[in-house]
Amino acid sequence: MENVPCTMKAWIYGQHGKPEDVLKLKSDVVVPDLMEDQVLVKVMASGLNPVDNKRMIGIFVQAECPFPTVPGYNVAGVVMKVRSQVKNLKVGDEVYGNIYEKALDHPKQYGTLAEYTAVEERLLAPKPKNLSFAEAASLSVAIRTAYEGLQRCEFTAGQSILVLGGAGGVGSMVIQLAKHVFGASRVVATASTGKLELLRNLGADLAVDYTKENFEDLPEKFDVVYDCVDKILGQCEKAVKAMKEGGKVVIVIAAVTVPAFVFIVTSNGPDLEKLNPYLESGKVKLLLIPKASILSLKHLKDLHMLTLAELPEKLSYIQSNKIINLNAISIYMYTDKNIIERFTTVTKELPYVTNWFHIIIS
């Protein structure tokens, strides 16, 4: 196993502001010290979530850590060091997870957009053997959000569920987990016209085109309505109308109407590990772009620079051809301009991209 240097490369910001103004690549960032329950992970792939941008521009200033800050929640990598209270992980293990136990409760100063990151053992799980590091890095927040929401509403075998936004990163996981892990009797999901076949392939018994049909007017009602659609005015009230008497409505991010409830995802390594057999067997699938369609800047000499104007066109092509639900788009970053453009794109310019871009530090 290679030696760990004293300093590392990392994307870092020292004040709140727009990514293009404050996010910088530094090569002399000190490798974080470890607490007794932590491991040091060499980051093979990381990911960006909308919360990274919100933290950077100062929306959560009352819950912030001291500057400077390295963004990034998702990680997949290799354990390089372990401390005394670490019981199961060992040097050389391939792991993945979300390094923040509670997303906005005392967030860490050093995230995952770096060569190394410090993580509590309890937040990590072994990387599924059939997934690459980049694939695993896209997965932890989405699958954990889906799983935790189903746990919190006490979803059980034999119940029915309506998934709003079933073609998104979280929604696609809710469909599969409800069907294959929790034993749903019936899964209905909504999406736009071009994604209905995707919903069926994921396991939905009925795919509803929300551009043509109001889900709250469906003749059947549901034990659970899981709303994965962000900030649509009046959505919660409609979701409540679609549930059975005594049912439950789960909201990922939005204002709620009683009896619906909203939650902020937590990180839990053992839960991720429980789901590994379903991922490794193929019962739960990560939806990916074929390699030929990956938006990659790895070979800059062979691939022209994608601009913000070009990216939506590329994503529209991917969606119209039913390749993926944008759950995993690998983008290799090499310059300040590249990562800042992608950071701004995934968190602001393209709100329909609900999932994660992978960043591989080079």
UniProtKB/TrEMBL annotation:
This is 2-methylene-furan-3-one reductase-like. Keywords: NAD, Oxidoreductase. PROSITE patterns: QOR_ZETA_CRYSTAL (PS01162). The keyword Oxidoreductase applies. CDD domains: MDR_like_2. Belongs to the zinc-containing alcohol dehydrogenase family. Quinone oxidoreductase subfamily. GO terms for molecular function: oxidoreductase activity, acting on the CH-CH group of donors, NAD or NADP as acceptor; zinc ion binding. The keyword Oxidoreductase applies. Pfam families: ADH_N (PF08240), ADH_zinc_N (PF00107). PANTHER family: 2-METHYLENE-FURAN-3-ONE REDUCTASE-LIKE, NADPH-DEPENDENT ALKENAL/ONE OXIDOREDUCTASE, CHLOROPLASTIC. Residues 18-324 form the Enoyl reductase (ER) domain.
